[in-house]
DNA sequence: TCTGGCGTTGGGTAATACCGAATGATTAAT
DNA sequence: ATTAATCATTCGGTATTACCCAACGCCAGA
C-alpha cells in the first residue's frame, strides 16, 4: 500500500490505519491490525493517536473516521476558487436537466468529485463528494486529460495504468488518445457506461485565463433517459454553456 | 498546539503542518516552518510526505490541502446513518423557510456542521460543511449539550472552556445550565447572535431509539428576518417537526 | 557578478515507532 | 460459579527514524 519511500515513515502506517477504517466499516483494533499486517499494539498506538487528534472516533461497534477530516476536506474545497464559482452553476445545471450534475478535477492522477448536485429525477448513484476514481473511467476525467500534454497523461498512465472497471472501460492507450482527439474537436467528453453499467455522462472542461484546464462539469444519468439525441445535442450544449459561465465568472472574482 | 502526549509523536507535528497550511493560506515551506517553530528541513520532510500521500498539493503560490481529505471527509459523513436520513429533510427545511438549514453533531467537544442547505433567500454565511465551532456558541451545540449529562458537559467545558467569540457569547457556566433547562422544557434551542452578530438560529435535537441525543437540525438567518414571532413560533415548530421526521426515518433504516 | 531568499539534500544522533509478551476487561460457554 | 476465549490495553527494550544542522543549488533582482 504505502510502498513508496516516505520521509516520515510513520505517516505511512498511520494512513494505512485510516484506510483500513475506511475499507473495513467499523472495525476493531484487532481487525485493523490483521488487515494491514502489524501487531495489535502498533495498531493500537496509531488508533489512540488518531483519536487524540480527533481524526478517528471509537464507536460502540468499532472505529470510524472522525469528523475532523470533514473540516479539512471542507476547507480544501472552499479554498479552490473554481469551487466557489462553479457551485451555483452546477446546482442550476442539475435543476434544469433533472439529473445529477457534478464538478470534478484531477489531482495526483485521479479524478476527484468536488461537488455533486442532485436534480429532481436523479437516480441513486455511487458517487459522493470527495470520491476519487480512475481518470479514464469518467467523462470529467477524460475531458480534463484531453486538454493536458501527452507527457502529462503518460505520467499518470505510467503510475496508475488503465485498470478495467467493467466491460466498457477503455484500457488501451491508443483508443484513449483517439478519444481525446474527438473530445478536443467537439468540446465535450462522454462516458457510456465505462465505470458504472447503464450510466451515461457528458462533461465539458473548464479553463483558466491561460487556457490551462482546471476542472470539468458533467451531467450523468441512466441510459434509459440519456438517449443518443439528448447525449449528443441537448446535454453537450448545456454542459458547455455551464463551463463557459464558470470560466467567465472566474475571470472576475 | 499538540501539547498532549501522543503515542505517535510525529503525527502531532504532521498535523501541525496541515493546520498551518489551513491557517496561512497557500504558504511556502519557510512560512510553515516559522509558523509552527521547526527547522525548514523538518517542515520539508513532512510536506513531501504529505504530498506523496496526496494529502497536500504544491501549487504555484504555495501549498494547499489535498483533495484526499475530501475523500476521507465525504466518507466519514456518508457513513453516519443520521446524515443519510437527515439530508433530504434538511434540504426541504431550507426550501420551506428560504433560509439556511443545517445538520450538526458534537464530536470531541466541538460542534461539527455535517450538512448545510441554502434556501432561496439565504444570506452568505461563514459556515461550511465540516466546519467546527465551540459548542456553546451555536443553537445546534446547545440543543445537543442540553440533553447530555452534567458530567458530560463538565468534561467538555473543562477541556475547552467557554471562550468568548463576541459580546453576546454565553461565558458563564450557570447561565448556560439555566439555558439548558429552558431548552429541555421548550424542546428547542436558539442562538441570538452569540457567534455571529446579527445572525439568529433555532435548533432542535435529534434522538436515537434510546433517547440519546445524536445530532441537531437548525435554521439560521439574519436578525432582520428572524423577528421574535418567527423565532419563537413558526421556526421552532418547523425545526422540531424536521427533527421528528428524521428520528422516525432513522428507526426504519 | 553579487546578494538574499527560497527549496532541497545528506548525515549524525537523540528520540521514538514498533514490537513481543504480559495484563486486564468482557463476554460466552460449561 | 468457573472456565475459556477474545478483545483491548499496558509496558519496556531496541532497532529504527524523526528531527535538526549545515551546506548546497537555484532563481530574481540589484
TrEMBL record, chains A, B:
Ranges where the IclR-ED domain occurs: 68-252
Origin superkingdom: Archaea
SMART domains: HTH_ICLR (SM00346)
Keywords annotated in UniProt: DNA-binding, Transcription, Transcription regulation
Cross-referenced SUPFAM superfamilies: GAF domain-like (SSF55781), Winged helix' DNA-binding domain (SSF46785)
Molecular functions (GO terms): DNA binding; DNA-binding transcription factor activity
Single GO biological process annotation from the record: negative regulation of DNA-templated transcription
PANTHER family referenced in this protein's UniProt entry, alphabetically: HELIX-TURN-HELIX TRANSCRIPTIONAL REGULATOR, ICLR FAMILY (PTHR30136), HTH-TYPE TRANSCRIPTIONAL REGULATOR RV1719 (PTHR30136:SF35)
Protein name per its UniProtKB record: IclR family transcriptional regulator
